[in-house]
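Give me the fold.
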Amino acid sequence: MANRIYEVPCLWKKIQSNTNLTPLGVSVPGSKSITNRALLLAALAKGESILKGALFSDDSKAFIQCLKALGYQIDADEASCTIRVQGTGGRPPLTEARVNVGSAGTAARFITALLGVTEGLYHMDSSEQMRKRPMGPLLTSLQDLGATIHYPDGGKEGHFPFTICGNGWQRNHLTVDIDTSSQFLSALLIISCLCPQDITITTTGTHGMAYIQMTQDMMSQFGVKTKRTDEHIYTISAGQNYKALNYEIEPDVSGACYFYAMCPLLGIPVTVRGVHQDSLQGDVEFLSILESMGCEKLHTPEGIQLLPPKDGVIKAVDVDMSVCSDQAITLAAIAPFADGITTIRGIGHIRHQESDRIHAIATELNKMGIYCEEGADRLTIYPGSPTPCLVETYEDHRMAMGFSLIGLRVPGVVIDNPDCCRKTFANYFELLDEIAEIFI
């Protein structure tokens, strides 16, 4: 069946001619990153945890199915955004299972780490997209701990599919390379308290430290403390256990950023309900970048409100986005409308996500007539007037959502395969339609 397309409603002229605009207030689903971490933490706790405000997306549903395939009892109520997890206090209920992680990177890394230290035999597979994404550094670390990994004939080492046989903890110290994904370290940190001895994890690379901090904060909320004794060294004391919780999941700041980006793009105040500066999510730093571009940030009980530049000018920036790299596409969508050259740095790892995002951004901007220079870990984007086109999304939800922003200001932008957004934000384009109705 052919992919569906989405014609982005251009709001720019309507908003410019409206002298009585009301601020835009929106609600977004729960955080993907927090939902998926909470699922594993709850599974490893002893007793029933109730996760409220959970995200129900393709990724989180895949994570739930992985846990069910391992024998965990999970009751998911999508209508109330609630998930009940019966934790087992450690090891999975089943010692042999077939697990398919789909395209969910978090499930791929977190579930594999757990099974790599569990005495059992587990057959792991994924979607074609996930088969292309890196797993090697995590699998190497698990082999160092004693796991054995077998690939099928014709399989590619360091990638799905594979069979993993855990042999418990043969060592209490390991090294992991996180240059291509911080999820490798997050996964190992979460399972570290299962080791019967104190454990030390040494890292190479510094990618995604905001997500590592989120992992540590959530582990602490569930009852396990970690220490960062050096820039690259983490220690976890033995004898700690996760505790079952009633846990409230924050709104997804990554999803909220697309709406905050509408503030400078369309010149309208924007509030996303439930998003506050003390969020666990690193993408809240994207709002500071928008401040650098001329926006003003206000803290309200409802959530952070962003006001557009007073003079209507979007300032160009030169910024390291390693802390909030998921928003590189979002900034790239704003950059053509800035008053100068925008440079985005520190994003080399996004070449290894759902798509090669650096190349995808450059390709689609150039297709629109916007000059964009692509570097190994950076993008340089020149201002200009984007021309209408069909935007390829590369099966990447962030390409679909990010490039839709350009269409809100430029008529004729069409998004190919918008349904890829089901991965994290199933109703994103429905929300865009609702916003369009307000202004049109």
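The chain has two domains: 5-29+251-439, 32-248.
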